[in-house]
Amino acid sequence: MIARGLKGITCTETKMSFIDGEQGRLIYRGYDAADLAQTHSFEEVAYLLWYGTLPNQEQLIELKKQFQASRKLPDNMKSIIASVPHSHDMLSVLRTALSSVELTDENQATITDAISLTSLTPAIIAYRQSLQQDIAFPEERSDLDHVAYYLYMITGKEPSKAYVQALETYMILTMEHGLNASTFSARVTASTESDIASAITSAVGTMKGPLHGGAPSGVIELLNESVQQEDIREFIREKVQQGEKLMGFGHRVYKTWDPRAQAIKKILQQQKQEDDWFDLALNVEEASINVLEELKPGRNLYTNVEFYAAAILRELTIPTNLFTATFTASRMVGWTAHVMEQLEDNTIFRPSAEYVGPFYS
Ligand code: ACO
To answer: 1 alpha carbon to ligand 1 midpoint, in Å?
Structure first.
């Protein structure tokens, strides 16, 4: 039997996360991810994934120091970023730039490397943006925690507490998610005993696809198209009848509500003042779920994290072209943690394919 897309195949063990696709629960190293997102910082959860335990005060201070000390974009990386053709999107820039990160030792994946890769991502994005838009590159600062620093780098402004809190929740909830396509890519590359920068380069290339990390901009398109319709439900129905996949709906593992989507939706509801756009998102969600139940019965298609990710990132005034890059900035922690875990007890990934071509002799 062929397991297309490796559906239902378990091919490794992990201590990183547990996804309960039936109950809609996500656990990071024993802790509920939605709870962590409300009670802990980005650095604390990153520490948890990398080291396996939550940090004490001293360990947290040390980690923050390491983050802050690894932010400076080297000149050679600036030249590499500038050399990526103008028409390429931010994920292509990240893929190219991150592949050139200097590693402590090419023969082993270390937490120091994981911190460098995570810490440099905001500056890579900001530097490329400054070139594309001919604006000043914000000076790298060492007085901000990672999420505030990310917002500062991409907006050039001091971020508000509410924005930092909302983005931190999003970034913690999207930090890790088992053997999703990009994490699997990273582990496959690591399994050949290649280096961590190569593994992350594979992951970023995989993240870019619209069926994975590229979905939020598709969600924005869906919402922008929907706002022009008199009958949203009919419009959605036509799309599904024509075989189109609705971006932000469905998931390989969740056959119920995606807990990340629900947690982000909750924050949006709490922060909501007057926002027609959020109301539109609620309408599109309701219409789509009804249509999917009718036209795709039994497939259990609900909103996934990307649907409300699009809503929250838009609320934070993050430009659409940076949605997937922002997802990349948070998932970097999960990828690097998985690469280290893969190397702890490595077996090279090498599945088989059934030959269905001709034999000429
Ligand atoms: N819209 C309409 N129909 C859908 C959707 C959707 N979003 N998702 C699945 N279906 C249908 C399929 O057409 C298929 O129908 P069929 O049985 O009549 O052939 C059935 O549901 C099963 O779908 P598969 O594509 O086989 O499910 P799979 O587990 O392989 O795919 C995936 C999961 C890729 C997420 C899919 O649901 C999809 O393409 N969604 C839209 C893109 C998206 O939102 N991606 C982000 C995912 S979250 C993340 O990566 C962080």
So the answer is: 22
Domain ranges of the chain: 17-210+321-344, 214-315
Q: Which residues contact 85 (CB under 8 A, 6 or more apart)?
A: none
Check residue 216 and give its pLDDT: 78
Strand order, beta sheet including 31-32: 17-20, 25-28, 31-32
The answer to whether ipTM exceeds 0.90 is yes
- Does the C-beta of 250 come closer than 6 Å to ligand 1? yes
Q: Which residues are catalytic?
A: 251, 306
What is the model's pLDDT at position 275?
67
Residue 305 CA to ligand 1 centre (angstroms): 13
Superfamily the domain 214-315 falls into: Cytochrome P450-Terp, domain 2 (1.10.230.10)
**Residue whose CA is closest, atom 34 of ligand 1?**
211
Residue type, 201: T
- Does residue 359 come out as left (phi exceeding 0), alpha (psi in the -120 to 50 range) or beta? beta
Residue 249 per-residue DSSP state: B
Burial of 359 (0-12, 13-18, 19+ CB in 10 A): exposed
**Per-residue model confidence as pLDDT tens digits over 266-320:** 888 887 666 677 889 999 999 999 999 999 999 999 999 989 988 888 888 899 8
Q: How far is the CA of 248 from the centre of ligand 1 (A)?
A: 9
CATH node for 17-210+321-344? 1.10.580.10
Contact yes or no for 254/307 (Cβ under 8 A) = no
